[in-house]
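## tool: complex_structure
## caller: assistant
## args:
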Amino acid sequence: MQLRKNKVNFSKINHIFLSHLHGDHIFGLMGLISTFGLLGRRSALHIHAHEDLKGLFEPHLNYFCSDLPYQIVFHNLTFDGPKIIYEDKKVTVESFPLSHRVPTCGFLFKEKPKQPNVRKEAIHKYQLQVREIVALKEGHPFIGEDGKMVPEEELIIPAPRPASYAFCSDTRYLRRIIPVIEGVDLLYHEATFGHELKDLAKSTSHTTAKQAATIARDANVGKLLLGHFSSRYRDLKPLEEEAKAVFEKTVMVKDNDVFTIER
Amino acid sequence: MQLRKNKVNFSKINHIFLSHLHGDHIFGLMGLISTFGLLGRRSALHIHAHEDLKGLFEPHLNYFCSDLPYQIVFHNLTFDGPKIIYEDKKVTVESFPLSHRVPTCGFLFKEKPKQPNVRKEAIHKYQLQVREIVALKEGHPFIGEDGKMVPEEELIIPAPRPASYAFCSDTRYLRRIIPVIEGVDLLYHEATFGHELKDLAKSTSHTTAKQAATIARDANVGKLLLGHFSSRYRDLKPLEEEAKAVFEKTVMVKDNDVFTIER
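## result:
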């Protein structure tokens, strides 16, 4: 329902990454799978999750979705260290272990570096051949007829810096993720509690807003998105304030918010 | 989420009646059960459904809701004829078989008749004793000191007529339900298709808007609520018009609509 409300093109969703098998993170999945089927999906849907999911879901799939017109492919996450679990021409997705009450992964989504564009004026001026354009895109220098190297800035428009996004939920305050998520443009991190409940956060393996902000600051991320707030907080202002005191570029997220990485 | 949006008091929900085990009628159940648990529910929740539900849900309950602070009681529906499946001081709930692609029940919710109130003026005028008041409420006549029967309208305010509601979804056009739902105040009936698709309705065991209106008219119901429309209909006006041509007191329902039975 949320995807539909946001007019997301369902056919563009081919991989689903599930951090852990707690109900609030997976109860919507059967409805999603079923709706995709009703809408006539044909291409396989890949679900990356703890290995238990397959055994739990297959009886329901067989009973409720016996005529599903597409294939579900389950991929088992591992929890012993960072691992690239998906890769295509444009992006990689890496899972890395978090620490919660059940086996849990965070996910790091990274664009691959793109090649620069060669300036049209330069192509014209130096009568560049395809071979020379390819070489420029690959980072080789270009030597002009006068035997001198033409400055790079005259020849190419650098590619935008590859974007990156890390998703960390649910987890206790876990400083060992810092090198993994170092420098991402966007970090989504859970902040179930305010720091006044740091003991409860610890005992339930959750993070406080202040702790999440500390991770963001020390990992030098571009922007911190906080979510997964306990329903006890009607007013999130105190959580926002305690996070911003540590890391100013913090945003409290709501359902259906959309964030664009600016480069 | 819909219950919360409508500010429904969750603790007042003790029985859930599931017509049949198709995904669009049950995928929300696990989330509901889990949320009730997170909110600290203590009283048992009774689920009336096809017997397969228990076997399907128990592995998920054990995995995702192992610390549920209340009991789930599964009650198996039967599909061979009308049956009272719930009764308390105020209401009865009766299941009755529908005809769909899997075993399906409709549900008839009936208030029990209430006793009339005895008029305060009459209590004063005739110095009525408790025993006489109880007798009046039970329908006995009252003989005044002059030996004449006092007219009923001078003594009592009749109780409001018991309200009734029938829920019929999903089902093919099924005229044998008419005597079961005869005269209900509100009838919810599915109308998946317009009558231009009556063949598709038949082959998928659904009902057209016109057919549902025919059921409502012939069962002499107070008001017909139509729902469960195929997502192909962006504009429901044609379905509304074909239904109203047969049964004027038809309402097209949307999520979160509330209907009060007027008496």
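## assistant note: The mean pLDDT of chain B is 95. The radius of gyration of chain B is 23 Å. Handing back to user.
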